[in-house]
Each structure stands twice: as structure tokens, then as C-alpha cells.
Design brief:
Elements lengths: L1 H33 L8 H11 L6 H8 L5 H20 L5 H9 L5 H14 L3 H5 L9 H20 L3 H14 L3 H13 L6 H5 L4 E9 L11 H4 L6 E4 L2 E4 L1 E4 L7 E2 H5 L5 E11 L3 E9 L2 E6 L2 E6 L11 E7 L2 E11 L11 E7 L12 H5 L10
Antiparallel strand pairs: 1-4, 1-6, 2-3, 5-12, 6-11, 7-10, 7-12, 8-9, 8-11
Helix pairs in contact: 1-2, 1-3, 2-4, 3-4, 5-6, 8-9, 9-10
């Protein structure tokens, strides 16, 4: 009896040591993959590590998913490849850890693309997970998961319409709109809502910034002004006057009532060619937070946040569309100053006359972040925030 107990204990101890060793090996392989550089540093070692990690047992899947939270673009691609190799083998052997995958999917702190990948593999093991999980993801950080949840609600609302239940259709469309961030889905919701007699504030829904102070034109002849530091880049004084391209220029306040927030500089200031205008506004945030500034424009542009240059793109007349450019930044608590430089060249073709932009503030999933307004914030001067190149 004692010998049998000792035998079982020895086997259990051996299995535990093997499991710990396997986990340590998995961690080391993942670390090697994560150390690969964008210029190819550590490529050979990472390639070997991916091959070995792809042969791991299903227990490694959770570690790979967690590693994707902090992986760079190149190492993330390799980790996803290793995950799929391990997951496919586990699926074929009926050993895919569905509970582990579901727990990862439900934890919104994880990287959205990793959560989506875990979800898609979970469905292969448990197709019922869709009906269980997706309805609760109407405001999920994962754009894909949120989109699925919105689509289900839109389908349900349309069915209510077909059944003549307009009140239920309206309620369901409104619920879908809360989660909709993609333009095609928003349009698919707004159109029937309007037919039902409902009004929708698209400016607020998307978080478009619609009030700006504008100054210009400054010279952009031969497109030379993109890198010229004109006065608004040196000081943001809304009471100042400067020498512009065609005489004295001063700041003027404008707003747009376009439902998609399009701000037409050419219409407001004159259809100048070879010119530059600056647009400035403030955004009051209740706290410090990471955001995405999403811009649409057919023109060359630069963007500053609180005096720091965030991004610049010198390209003309590529076309303009919603969320064409996405720039991440961090708002500080309270008043934040945004400065946008929008450049027009001298092309004369009809399609080259647009001089406009569309700008919104949102979280990484595309959900609008709206500014806070208060009497104290409104009293603050708009004369600081010196841009730095």
C-alpha cells in the first residue's frame, strides 16, 4: 500500500515538474519572439522560437494570448501564427480550452485583436458562444465585437418594422445606435429612424469638433509653406494680427452645421490657391485620458496638441473620407488646445479645389468623447499653448 502511495506521489510530482518546465519553456519562447526588432534584430532566434512554440500543447494558448497585449507589430504577427497552429491541432484533438478562451474574451482589458482571435476560435469549439456573448458587447472596446452586436440589433429592429411593431423598432434602433461607430452601420440605423419620425444628432454621436477659430491665408506658393513656421505655430494669441499672403490676417470664429462636421475653409475664407489656414480650438477633458483624433481632409496638414506636434502629412488631393487619418494623443485634465494647419496647393482641376476638413475626438474603438463645458473653463484665456515643431 505504502509503495503504491509513493508511486502515485512520484508520478504526480513528475507531472507537476514537467508542467512547470513546459510553462517556463513557453515563457522563454514567447520572450524570444517579443525581442525581435523591426529592423530584423533577433530574427533568426525568433523564427526558431516560433517553430518550437507552434508545437506546444494547448496550455500555451493562454500565455500566447496574454503576450499579445504588449507585443509589437512584427512579434504579434508571429505570435498569432503560433497560436493558430496550436489551436488548430487542439481543435482536431477535441482539446481546445473553451473556458480559457471565453474568460480571455470577456476580459476587456486585453488587446482587442487578441480577444477577437480568441473569440473566433472559441466559436469553433462552442458555436453557442455567439448568442451568449455578443449581445453584451454593444459598447465593447473591440470594434469587431461591437460591430457584431450592433448588427444583431439592427436585424432585430428591421424585423420589428416588418412586423409593424414600430415602437419596438425605434427602441431597438436607438439601442443599436449607442454602439454604432462605423459609418455604414450608423447610416443603416439613422435612415429608418428618420422615417419613424426620430431625430439624430450625428455631430454629437460621432464627436465632431464644429467650432474653430481660423486665420489665413498664409503663403503656400509652390507648396513651400508646409515646413514654414508661421506665427500661429509660435504663439496662439487669438487677438493677434499678422502679415498674411494677401495682407493682414486675424483670427475669426466659425462653426459648421454640417451633420458630418465638415468644415469648409474655402467657403468661409475665399477659394485661395497656394495658401495655408490655421484652425484652433480648445477641448476640456474631465480627466487625463488617451484618445484618438480622427481627421478627414484632402489637403496637407499638421496637428498640434497643447503645443506638441502630433503628426504631419504632406499629401494633396487624395480624397476625403470619415476617419481618414487616426492620430493618438493624451488629453490632460481640464483645458487642451488643438491647432490644425491645413494647406492648399495651386492645382486648377475641378477635383483639386477642396479645402476642408472633418475632425473628431474618440476612444480607440471610435466611440465619441465629448468635451466638458463649465463656467470656469469658458473664462479661461485661449492665448497659451505655444506649438513646438
Amino acid at each position: 500500500m505504502n509503495q503504491r502511495v509513493w508511486l502515485y506521489a512520484g508520478i504526480a510530482c513528475g507531472l507537476l515538474m514537467t508542467t512547470v518546465a513546459a510553462a517556463d519553456e513557453t515563457d522563454q519562447l514567447i520572450a524570444t519572439i517579443q525581442q525581435v526588432g523591426q529592423q530584423g534584430e533577433g530574427h533568426e532566434q525568433a523564427t526558431a522560437a516560433v517553430r518550437e512554440l507552434s508545437q506546444a500543447d494547448p496550455a500555451a494558448l493562454a500565455d500566447i494570448l496574454v503576450a499579445l497585449d504588449t507585443a509589437g507589430p512584427l512579434s504579434a504577427n508571429w505570435l498569432r501564427g503560433a497560436f493558430e497552429a496550436v489551436a488548430q491541432r487542439a481543435l482536431e484533438n477535441d482539446a481546445l480550452p473553451a473556458e480559457t478562451l471565453e474568460a480571455f474574451v470577456l476580459d476587456r482589458s486585453h488587446e482587442p485583436r487578441a480577444r477577437r482571435m480568441a473569440y473566433e476560435w472559441l466559436l469553433k469549439a462552442d458555436p453557442s458562444a455567439e448568442d451568449r456573448l455578443i449581445p453584451e458587447m454593444i459598447e465593447d472596446p473591440s470594434g469587431e465585437m461591437r460591430r457584431d452586436a450592433v448588427a444583431r440589433l439592427v436585424a432585430a429592429a428591421n424585423q420589428f418594422l416588418e412586423d409593424g411593431e414600430e415602437a419596438k423598432a425605434t427602441t431597438t434602433f436607438r439601442q443599436a445606435l449607442k454602439g454604432a461607430v462605423d459609418d455604414d452601420q450608423v447610416k443603416a440605423i439613422v435612415k429608418p429612424l428618420k422615417k419613424l419620425g426620430e431625430t439624430v444628432d450625428l455631430q454629437r454621436h460621432f464627436g465632431f469638433v464644429t467650432n474653430w477659430h481660423v486665420i489665413g491665408p498664409f503663403d503656400n506658393t509652390d507648396m513651400k509653406g508646409f515646413d514654414v513656421t508661421y506665427p500661429p505655430e509660435q504663439e496662439l494669441d487669438l487677438s493677434a494680427e499678422y502679415d498674411g499672403k494677401e495682407g493682414t490676417v486675424r483670427w475669426e470664429e466659425f462653426s459648421t452645421d454640417d451633420e458630418y462636421g465638415t468644415f469648409d475653409i474655402a467657403e468661409l475664407t475665399s477659394p485661395y490657391k497656394g495658401a495655408i489656414s490655421y484652425a484652433a480650438t480648445e477641448f476640456v477633458s474631465p480627466d487625463g485620458r488617451d484618445v484618438e483624433f480622427r481627421l478627414g481632409t484632402a489637403n496637407a496638414w499638421k496637428l498640434w496638441l497643447n503645443g506638441e506636434l502630433l503628426f504631419a502629412r504632406e499629401e494633396y488631393h487624395r480624397g476625403m473620407q470619415l476617419d481618414q487619418y487616426r492620430v493618438r494623443g493624451r488629453l490632460k485634465p481640464g483645458r487642451n488646445v488643438l491647432l490644425l494647419k491645413v494647406c492648399q496647393n495651386e492645382q486648377t482641376q475641378d477635383w483639386a479645389q477642396k479645402w476642408s476638413f472633418q475632425f473628431r475626438v474618440c476612444d480607440f474603438s471610435g466611440k465619441a468623447i465629448l468635451p466638458v463645458r463649465s463656467e470656469s473653463a469658458a473664462r479661461e484665456s485661449s492665448t497659451d499653448g505655444k506649438p513646438k515643431s
